Every structure is written in structure tokens, then in C-alpha cells.
Amino acid sequence: MLDRIRELATAYQPEVVELRRFFHMYPEVSWEEVRTTEKISEILADMGCENIRTGFGGTRAGITAEITGSRPGKCVALRADMDALPINEENEIPYRSLSQGVMHACGHDCHMAMLLGAARILSVMKEQLSGKVRLLFQPCEEIGLRSGALQMIREGVLEGVESICGLHIWSPLPAGRIGYRSGPMMAACDAWETIIRGKGGHGSAPHETFDPTIAAAQVISSIQCIVSREIDPQATAVISTGSMQAGSLFNIIPETVRLEGTTRTFIPEVQGQVEKAMERIVKGISQTFRCEADLRYTRYVPSTINDKGMTLCIRELAEEILGPDRVEEIVPVMASEDFSYYQREIPGVFFFLGGGNSEKEAGFPHHSPRFNVDEEVFPTGVSMLAGFALKKLGSPS
Ligand SMILES: [Zn+2]
Ligand SMILES: [Zn+2]
Questions:
Q1: What CATH number should be reported for the domain holding residue 262?
Q2: Which of 45, 142, 256, 306 sees the fewest Cβ atoms within 10 Å?
Q3: Distance from residue 106's CA to the centre of ligand 2 (Å)
Q4: pLDDT at 237
Q5: Boundaries of domain holding 204
Q6: Residue-level pLDDT at 1
Q7: What is the pLDDT, as a whole number, of residue 397?
Q8: 8 Å CB contact between 13 and 121
Q9: What is the CATH number of the domain that holds 335?
Q10: Do 154 and 34 have their domain in common?
Q11: Cα 108 to middle of ligand 2, angstroms
Q12: Ligand nearest to the CA of 167
């Protein structure tokens, strides 16, 4: 079965590359992936996919479709994200973005093309499927607060789905390798904000004021003690202050100080611990210095937590496709991915496909205006996605 998948993935490579370059030339930002949706919809209809549904979140972006096997069975989902970024491309390539100031700089163009390649394989091999494969082309992965995954789930895309798989092409990982990890793999991303209110006055008469800058300085230092003194050293958390605003002139003690920052955690319990401790410290320290403050803590995107059994399945599949030397367990990364929302509902696995190759000018980081990937890795990604569905739904042959 895997030989056949690999053979087809190689045969479809020119088509997958062409699609990826099309998406790259016509990038669309989050929740505006309309032209992209139309293109994918046409391709899926030509392939004979069923139950094609387009438009989510009150927009015309996003698409789901199904490939039905010859025998009844479970339903598994494969997901690709669709959005580009507000970045002006600096690559000198024939398929450079034609949209000024918008670029596929995270590789989501590759994800869509590879999922279409996998869909073609599954359509050709559907005689061997017991059950259904639901394809999810998801808008808006990049903006956590407007997550396309969350919106699609609200609109029922996971109904009847037993498990889900997705990948990210990953430039820090050398081309052609697969990186997997069981349990937490990518961090939860949260934002926090506080306004510390004191009593302003003349810089020469601090005794007549309640100086919020002193409270703010203590808050900034003390929240770092959450990581060093309260969190289990074996667990991980990051607390950063990203913005600090106060005052207008050198001789005025201001009324307020506004602080903003982000936190990253992997385990939901640690996330809760960080939130509670931040609130206690911000309020407590402000009171100590005769000021008042409230903490606004917003949970943006949960952590990506891979199902153990499904990770094993991906690892085995990758080793069968690439050989064990090119499959590695990776350390968790602090970036976030809204694939995590699917994993809160059903068992899911997310993995990295190495796409970095400095010899081909594909060594720049994600979200860089020079980001690019080694397209030769596509057949591996296509085989992994198709292989996962066939492993889950395939009849033993
Ligand atoms: Zn990104
Ligand atoms: Zn991405």
C-alpha cells in the first residue's frame, strides 16, 4: 500500500509544485482566502469529492470536502491552513507574490498543495478505504483571537470525525526529515495587560503622590519569580513584558502605568498557575505601593498536545516512508498553532515536515520576507497525509 502511495506522490509532484506556486503568487490574508477557496473548490469537484462546503465565519473563505471509501467505516480528518501574512516578499523567484505587501511566509501554500496531492491519491485509492476522509482547508491560522479552527469547529466540521492529522512544513528542520513529539509539542500563547493606577503629582513632591511607576517596576521584576520560584523546574513557562507606557514629562509623576505582555506554557495546569500568580502579584504589589490594578489575561491559543497512540502511528509511518534515520523526536517549540483547538475535541496529531535547505535559499525563518522551502519534500508530506488516512481506514491488504 505504501509503495503505491509513494509512487503516486512522485507522479503528482509536478502538479503539487504548480499548485503551491499558484497559491504563492496569489496570497490572501486571514479570513480573506476567497480566491484560494474557489481554486481549491474547483480542484476538489474535479476529483469527485463529495459534500463540498465553502464559507465559514460569515465569509466566503474556507472549505471542507469528503472522500468516501468503498466500504462504510469511521471518518478521519486531514487539515491544511490557508492564510498568508502581511509581509512584502523579498525573494527573487519566478513565482513571487503578485500581491503587494502579502506573502505566504509561513508555508501554508505548501500545506494546501500537499493536502490536494494527498486528496488525489485517496480519490484514486478509495476502493481501499473503509469510511470517509474529511478534508479541512482552514482560513485564519495566524491570528489566534480570530482562529479559523475554532470557528470551523463551531460550525460543525468535526461532527462524526474520529481523529485528525495535520502538518507544518518547518524550516528549522532540514529538508526531508519528519519531526514528531508525543504530548505537548507547541506552546499555548496568552496575552496579559494591566493598568496600575496611583495618584500623580509633582516630581519634586513624591510624598504627595502614590507613584505607579514604582509599583510597575516591582511588578515587572516580581512576575519573573513565577517562573523561577513557583513553576516546577521540570515544566516550562515564559513570561515577557512587551509594552510599558507611562508619563508625559520628566517632572511629573504619572497617574497610571500600563503594562502588556505575553506568556507561553505547554501544560494547561501550568497555564492556570501562571494566570493566578500573575493576578496575585500584580494586585498585591500595586496595593503595597498604595496603587490599584486589575489583570486582564486573555487565552489566545491552547497548547498543541499530541495524542500518544496517534503520534506512534505517525512515527511508524514516517519511518516506513523515510527510514528511521530521517525521523526524529523534536523538542517542544514555543510557537503556537491553532490546530490545538481540534485536539481539544478529538484525538489529533500534528507533526513537522523539514523544509529547510540553505543550498536552495530555503534557510530563512518562518515569517521572514525571504522565507522559502525546498519543494522536493512535498512527496514526503503528501505520502504522510495520504498514508495516515489509509492506515486509519485502510483494509488490511
Ligand atoms: Zn505562521
Ligand atoms: Zn504556520
A1: 3.30.70.360
A2: 45
A3: 5
A4: 95
A5: 192-301
A6: 87
A7: 47
A8: no
A9: 3.40.630.10
A10: yes
A11: 6
A12: 2
- CA of 83 from ligand 1 middle (Å) equals 9
Instruction: Report which bound ligand comes closest to the CA of 304.
Output: 2
Given 271, 301, 331, the domain boundary residue is: 301
Residue with cell 503587494: 100
Ligand 1 mean position to 367 CA, how many Å? 6
Domain count, the chain: 2
Q: What pLDDT score was predicted for residue 394?
A: 84
Ligand nearest to the CA of 85: 1
Q: Cα(108) to centroid of ligand 1, in Å? A: 8
Give pTM, 2 decimals.
0.92
CA–centroid distance, residue 224 to ligand 2 (Å): 29
Contact between 28 and 34 (Cβ < 8 Å): yes
Q: 238: Cβ–Cβ under 8 A, 6 or more apart, which residues? A: 187, 227, 262, 263, 264, 265, 334
The active-site residue, picked from 28, 141, 307, 338, is 141
Ligand number with the minimum distance to the CA of 168: 2
Query: How many CB atoms within 10 Å of residue 365?
Result: 11
Mean pLDDT by 10 residues, the chain (397 residues): 95 98 98 98 97 98 97 97 98 97 98 98 96 98 95 98 98 96 97 98 98 98 97 95 97 98 96 98 98 97 97 97 96 95 98 96 95 98 98 76
Long-range interactions of 307-312: CB distance < 8 A, separation 24+ = 307/163, 307/182, 307/343, 307/347, 307/348, 307/349, 308/182, 308/183, 309/347, 310/163, 310/165, 310/347, 310/348, 310/349, 311/180, 311/181, 311/182, 311/349, 311/351, 312/182
Q: Residue 395: what pLDDT?
A: 62
- Judge whether 83 counts as a catalytic residue: yes
Same domain for 328 and 275? no
Which of 83, 255, 275, 337 is an active site residue? 83
